[in-house]
Amino acid sequence: MRIVFAGTPEFAAQHLQALLDAGRQIVAVYTQPDRPAGRGQKLAPSPVKQLALQHGIAVYQPQTLRDPAAQAELAALKPDLMVVVAYGLILPQVVLDTPRLGCINSHASLLPRWRGAAPIQRAIQAGDASSGVTVMQMEAGLDTGPMLLKVSTTITAADTGGSLHDRLAQLGSAAVVEAVSKLAAGELHGEVQDDSQATYAHKLNKDEARLDWSRPADELERLIRAFNPWPICHSTLNGEPLKVLAASLGEGAGQPGEILAASKDGLTVACGTGALRLTRLQLPGGKPLSFADLYNSRREQFAVGLVLGQ
Fold first, then answer.
1. C-alpha distances in angstroms, 116 versus 123, 150, 221, 237, 279?
2. Separation of alpha carbons 90 and 197, rounded Å
3. Which of 44, 73, 219, 254 is 20 to 30 Å from 51 at the Cα level?
4. Considering 155, 172, 201, which residue would you say is the last residue of a domain?
5. In this structure, are 72 and 108 located in the same domain?
6. Binding site, residues?
7. Do 110 and 26 fall within a single domain?
8. What is the pLDDT of residue 40?
């Protein structure tokens, strides 16, 4: 089976590696154009491109697949199947129709819940009990195609956006390998999604990572986990930026944002309902530290009665 793989970030690269490990024939890789990265803002290849080059696989990086020349280039590869994972470009119908077996996609949610750009983080933020990966047959709508295979996992109280991402990357990689095998054998049949159950996972942005202390403590605790490692929740203390990397539910009440207590166990801050105990923070110019370390060296900056976010 001649497979074209389309993907860009590390999540996609793990899927590509799994297909290679399974001995699948990858005739070409499509990925986003190189982007500026790092302090020097030098152009850097995507994780998928790096992996493809290591294996001597041809790499294509069109700006768009709406270009007839790019479509002809893809058709010339004569693919049987296109596997798409977090590619970042819209596939027009002519592209979806090019491979003999169409295009399949590994999406990091239990569809039809959390269609869209940030399903992993939105599931944690919403307090979902479980998440998973859905391999689906792609169609023109956004994550609306028939579902071919699903795997699920429990979202634990300790999960962050990073830990769930890593677990779903492993589950999704195995699911795609299984789906390809079953497609080749004609053993997979699509299940139509129930659109009435669909929710949309909006793209993350830094503005929504600002902690609004008037919100309930349990809501903010989930937000802090969901947005770690990016974009990282933040507030201010004494007018200076303060990044919050970990927190648990605390006890007490007061003005939203007010420091209620500080000890080696954490910094307890009042919320609209309940309180949060902040346990890992990052001050300007510093590295992330446990609050116990900050308390030992800078306890005067965390006086009871100060209000965060002002």
1. 12, 17, 23, 34, 32
2. 23
3. 73
4. 201
5. yes
6. 109-112
7. yes
8. 84
Distance separating alpha carbons of residues 137 and 12, to the nearest angstrom: 17
**Number of domains making up the chain:** 2
User: What is the rounded average pLDDT for all residues in the chain?
Assistant: 96
Domain ranges, residue 289 = 207-307
Q: Is 61 exposed, middle or buried (0-12, 13-18, 19+ CB in 10 A)?
A: middle
- As a whole number of angstroms, the distance between CA 202 and CA 200 comes to 6
**Mean pLDDT of each 10-residue bin along the chain, 310 residues long:** 97 98 98 90 95 98 96 98 95 97 97 96 98 96 95 98 98 98 93 97 94 98 97 95 97 97 96 98 94 92 94
| Residue 147 · residue 134 · CB < 8 Å | yes
Q: Which residues are annotated as a binding site for (6S)-5,6,7,8-tetrahydrofolate?
A: 109-112
- For tokens 């497609």, name the residue: 183
